[in-house]
Amino acid sequence: MQPPFSFIVLTFNEEQHLPRLLNSIKALNAPLFILDSGSTDQTLKIATDFNAAIKHHAFENHPKQWDFAIKNFDVKTPWTIGLDADQIVTPELFDQLANFKDDEVYKDINGIYFNRKNFFKGKWIKFGGYYPKYLMKMFRTGIGFSDTNENMDHRFVVPGKTITWKKGHILEENLKENQISFWIAKHNRYSDLVAEEEIERMQALRAQTIRPSIVGNPDQRTAYLKSLWWKLPRGLRSFAYFSYRMTLKLGFLDRKTGILFHFLQGFWFRLMVDVKITEKLKERLKDD
Fold first, then answer.
1. Is this structure's pTM higher than 0.70?
2. Angle CA 69–73–205, to nearest 5
3. H or E segment at 55?
4. CB neighbourhood size of 121 (10 A)
5. Among 133, 129, 82, CA closest to 242
6. pLDDT at res. 94
7. What pLDDT score was predicted for residue 287?
8. For position 285, what pLDDT does the model report?
9. Distance between CA atoms of 207 and 88, rounded to whole angstroms?
């Protein structure tokens, strides 16, 4: 019997990660859709071996790629689950999905949050505000959509009610990031996207899709914190954020590898964004 959900996965040269993910969900026997953006390794062969329906689309950013996937795959099941290729479904989450029924219990629910464990260089990042981390990964087909008002952070949005599954996890570990040069190059690209996005928000060309609320669902709380972040002075906010993660959020307990992660992700990356915002604004003043 086919489950009431399908999986969509985005890929680009994911031969290192894709078998982990697909093996973790294979026994669910759910329809599988893969949107690839030009892989040159064994990704597409792996996808074919797992009987995935495959489409191709040039990559611009994650939110737009997810938007294309949701709109262009012919998903027949009432629910859709969107996963990243470097994620794995744990046995506990697998069991919850295996027992999931689209019945009266969920009749008023349009979205479900999963709990994520993030790994860096083989270490689970448990502190610094990184756990628990609830991500909407499961939504009603035809109702959930990708938030294209973001340049980098991708999230699914649904109107109406959501719930959070606290049992089980998705494990996220990008093995390519074990090479620090890969991590830095990747986040250097991301900092360009975020800087451009923030300038557009200054110019009122973008607005948050999700209503900010400190007491709302996980994405509403994130939207609230972002609305505060954008008001903080550039350059100083990265210092404040890193200090907050290290002290109030106990990031120092993640020890050597975790502290490196918090420094890179919580300080270096955000400082780069601020520097690039300043550079871009100066360039535009010259052009005017």
1. yes
2. 30
3. strand 53-56
4. 17
5. 129
6. 98
7. 76
8. 85
9. 32
User: Binning pLDDT at 50, 70 and 90, where does residue 102 land?
Assistant: very high
User: Which of these, 29, 35, 23, lies nearest to 6 by C-alpha position?
Assistant: 29
Judged against a pLDDT cut of 90, whether residue 261 lies above it is answered with yes
Model pLDDT for residues 13-47, shown as the tens digit of each residue: 999 999 999 999 999 999 999 999 999 999 999 99
- Whether the link from the prior residue into 212 is cis, omega within 30° of 0, is no
- Tell how far CA 136 is from the center of its chain: 9
Rounded to whole angstroms, how far apart are CA atoms 274 and 120? Answer: 24
Separation CA 288–CA 283 (nearest Å)? 9
Q: Grade residue 284 by pLDDT with cuts at 50, 70 and 90.
A: confident
To 10 degrees, the CA torsion angle through 214, 218, 224, 225? 110
d(CA 1, CA 4): 9
Residue with tokens 């300080």: 267
Start-to-end CA distance of the chain, whole Å, equals: 63
Place of tokens 């100083």: 236
Burial class of residue 284 (count of CB atoms within 10 Å of its CB; 0-12, 13-18, 19+): exposed
Residue 41 exposed, middle or buried by CB count within 10 Å (0-12, 13-18, 19+) = middle
